[in-house]
Design a protein that fits this description.
This protein is α/β, with parallel strands linked by helices and about 475 residues long. The chain is built from 14 helices and 14 strands. The chain has helices at about 5-10, 25-35, 40-55, 75-100, 145, 150-170, 180-190, 195-215, 235-240, 270-275, 295-305, 325-335, 365-380, 425-445; strands at about 60-65, 100-105, 120-125, 125-130, 230, 245, 250-255, 260, 285-290, 315, 345, 355, 360-365, 390. The protein has an 8-stranded parallel sheet. Helix 13 packs parallel to helix 14.
Length: about 475
């Protein structure tokens, strides 16, 4: 593996990069980042790769969630606690329903940059650069705020470090205690309009905990949780500056996060993003929209996972509720026939976005749920493993997506529409999704055991890509 992946991508076209006005400032901030401590360690990335190998083999599932776009102003203890609490609650439900470990990954500590469909935004006859996330520019529609500022990448690093410190403290300091998380879920079931539907599962979890305690099991081991973070690896100057080579192995790691992904708009096989991520040892993911073809997906596997190692590559499908049952089967069949053991994950958010009459971008909870259902159904029919979900959510009671057990109506959208970019599930909707996904797994007999890999295919390990 190339020990300097920051070099080779520069010879290729890098899509969705800001037009920085001052190249010397970019060099200054990337020099600072290159000398900063890594945000995550290579050993942590290798551990996640081992966990993702279990997902690929059908021995675990992954739950990933967090903000569409993090903002510097919301890198607070309250916000981090809310998202972490929501993900822990969801994970308990899914663990019990599937009888499998849940790999927990926050869409956190780095999700500060966003691709945009247009480089400019027009309002009232004025044209300014589009808001590309707090790592690039400000959301206010003024020339000063919208001018890309490379020193925001340093603020991104500092805000990510703050978030990671909070996550590590919370997940090891008692906040993740399974008994406490279950008590939160009991409160949700009691207070949710759809709670009666979830009572049976909550009662089963309660009895399981009581049984463990009666048997003298050491519940002290359940007071902490393993938790990883990830984001879209969009700003290549930032990612390259935080790339570190391990002296003993020569392998290079993107130390900005554990699991990074390539977006739908930047997955060009010959592009800079695929080139960069082909040369780091982290587990990586790729988003696949409804236009992704089998040839493209197989090409991505050849570039990003040439050794066909379980845990290296995750394919995140964002086809839309109306397309997933048509698009997904062919992709899964072709990849399975190729002998690649990838992790299949559903992103039920991005393919189901529309604009409400009020002008707010939103998503219908029923459509999100239907895409997840279609994803699970396809894998069950093919005998492959529906590896998990990747959702945009918050721990707050926002009104950004329509529907859910405690229904958010279209006319409610303006009340607490707080996202910096796309609409997120609120706390209650996120838990609704977890309980309903748990029901899906049970209805279909649990996650399917995947077909065995072709002879000669690697079936484990966390080595280099």
């Amino acid at each position: 593996m190339d020990s300097e992946p920051s070099a080779s991508w520069r010879a290729r076209f890098a899509a969705q990069q800001p037009e920085w006005p001052d190249a010397e400032q970019v060099r200054s901030v990337t020099r600072w980042l290159a000398g900063a401590p890594p945000l995550v360690l290579a050993a942590e990335c290798d551990r996640l790769r081992t966990r993702m190998a279990a997902v690929a083999r059908g021995e675990a599932i992954i739950l990933q969630g967090g903000d569409c776009a993090e903002t510097f102003g919301r890198a607070t203890t309250q916000a981090v606690r809310g998202k972490l609490r929501t993900l822990l609650q969801m994970a308990v439900v899914l663990t019990h329903a599937t009888a499998l470990p849940v790999v927990k990954v926050g869409r956190m500590a780095g999700q500060y940059a966003k691709p945009r469909s247009s480089p400019v935004e027009r309002r009232d006859g004025r044209t300014l650069p589009s808001y590309r996330g707090d790592a690039v520019n400000g959301a206010e529609f003024t020339p000063q705020a919208r001018t890309p500022d490379p020193w925001r990448m340093r603020r991104m690093y500092e805000a990510s470090a703050t978030t990671l410190n909070l996550v590590r403290a919370l997940t090891t300091g008692g906040f993740a205690d399974l008994r406490q998380v279950h008590a939160w879920n009991q409160g949700f079931v009691a207070g949710s309009a759809a709670g009666r539907r979830y009572e049976r599962l909550a009662d089963e979890i309660d009895r399981s905990l009581a049984f463990m305690q009666a048997c003298g099991a050491d519940l002290g081991e359940l007071t902490s949780a393993e938790f990883f973070v990830g984001h879209e690896g969009l700003l290549l100057e930032y990612e390259a500056a935080l790339t570190r080579a391990e002296a003993d192995t020569g392998r290079s790691y993107a130390t900005s996060g554990h699991l990074l992904w390539i977006g739908e708009r930047t997955r060009d096989l010959d592009g800079a993003h695929v080139e960069y991520f082909s040369r780091v040892a982290n587990p990586v993911a790729v988003k696949l929209g409804p236009t992704a073809t089998p040839d493209t997906v197989l090409g991505l596997i050849d570039r990003l996972d040439p050794a066909r190692e379980p845990g290296r590559l995750t394919l995140v499908v964002r086809a839309g509720a109306d397309r997933v049952r048509d698009v997904l089967p062919t992709l899964v069949e072709k990849v399975t026939a190729e002998g690649a053991q990838v992790c299949w994950v559903s992103d039920p958010m991005h393919g189901n976005t529309f604009t409400a009459p009020s002008g707010h971008k939103t998503r219908r909870f029923d459509a999100i749920l239907d895409e997840v259902r279609g994803f699970v159904e396809v894998h069950q029919e093919l005998g492959t493993h529906p590896g998990g979900v990747h959702v945009e959510l918050t721990g707050d009671d926002v009104t950004e997506c329509i529907g859910g057990g405690n229904e958010v109506r279209a006319e409610d959208l303006p009340y607490r529409y707080e996202t910096a970019c796309d609409p997120r599930l609120n706390h209650t909707q996120s838990l609704d999704l977890a309980f309903l996904l748990a029901e899906m797994y049970r209805e279909h007999g649990g996650p399917a055991h995947p077909r065995r890999a072709s002879p000669g295919t690697s079936d484990g390990g966390s080595g280099t890509a």
